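User: Please fill in residues for this 180-position structure.
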C-alpha cells in the first residue's frame, strides 16, 4: 500500500503524519495522533461515535480517508477552541444527564451544536431527526433531547421546554419519532 504524508490542524495543533492511502481519518486521529474524543464504533457511518468537524462541516470520521483531510482543520468535541454553542451544549448534557457511559457523547455534542447553529429554536422532532445518525445505547434519548432543548433555550434566552421531548428509545437504538 502506498504511504502519503499529510498535514492537518487538529484541535488547534498543526500535525504532520504518514498514513496509508486507505487509512480512515478516525484511525489516524486515534492511533497516530492519540486523539480519543472521536470513538470507533460501527465503521459504517451508522452510530455517529466518530463525529468530528472537518473545515467546519460535521462529518463522520469513519467515512473520510485521512488523505482527504490533508491541509484541512479537524475539530473534535475535546477542542479547546472557544465555541459558545458547543460549550453550552456540553454544559447542558451534564446538567440534564444527557450522557451515561460517554461513548456517544462527543458525536452527540458536535451534532447538537451543529443543529443549533443552523436552527437555534428546534422542535423536539427536529432535534430527534438531527440526532438520528447518532446512536446511544444507555440513555433512551430523553435526557439527550432535553439537553439540546435546554441548550437552545439558554442560547436564545427563552424558557426551557418542559416535558418528555425525547420520548423513549426505539428498539433498534435509533432516535425515536415523536408524535408532535
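Assistant: Residues filled in for all 180 positions:
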Amino acid at each position: 500500500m502506498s504511504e502519503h504524508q499529510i498535514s492537518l490542524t487538529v484541535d488547534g495543533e498543526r500535525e504532520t503524519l504518514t498514513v496509508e492511502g486507505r487509512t480512515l481519518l478516525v484511525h489516524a486521529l486515534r492511533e497516530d495522533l492519540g486523539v480519543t474524543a472521536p470513538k470507533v464504533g460501527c465503521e459504517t457511518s451508522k452510530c455517529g461515535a466518530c463525529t468530528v468537524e472537518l473545515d467546519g462541516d460535521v462529518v463522520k470520521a469513519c467515512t473520510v480517508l485521512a488523505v482527504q483531510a490533508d491541509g484541512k482543520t479537524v475539530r473534535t468535541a475535546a477542542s479547546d477552541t472557544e465555541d459558545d454553542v458547543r460549550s453550552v451544549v456540553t454544559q447542558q448534557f451534564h446538567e440534564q444527564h444527557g450522557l451515561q457511559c460517554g461513548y456517544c457523547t462527543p458525536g452527540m455534542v458536535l451534532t447538537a451544536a451543529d443543529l443549533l447553529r443552523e436552527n437555534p429554536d428546534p422542535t423536539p422532532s427536529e432535534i430527534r431527526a438531527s440526532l438520528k445518525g447518532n446512536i446511544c445505547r444507555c440513555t433512551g434519548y430523553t435526557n439527550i433531547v432535553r439537553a439540546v432543548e435546554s441548550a437552545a433555550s439558554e442560547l436564545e434566552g427563552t424558557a426551557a421546554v418542559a416535558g418528555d421531548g425525547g420520548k423513549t428509545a426505539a428498539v433498534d437504538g435509533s432516535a425515536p419519532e415523536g408524535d408532535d
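For context: DSSP finds five helices and five strands in the chain.
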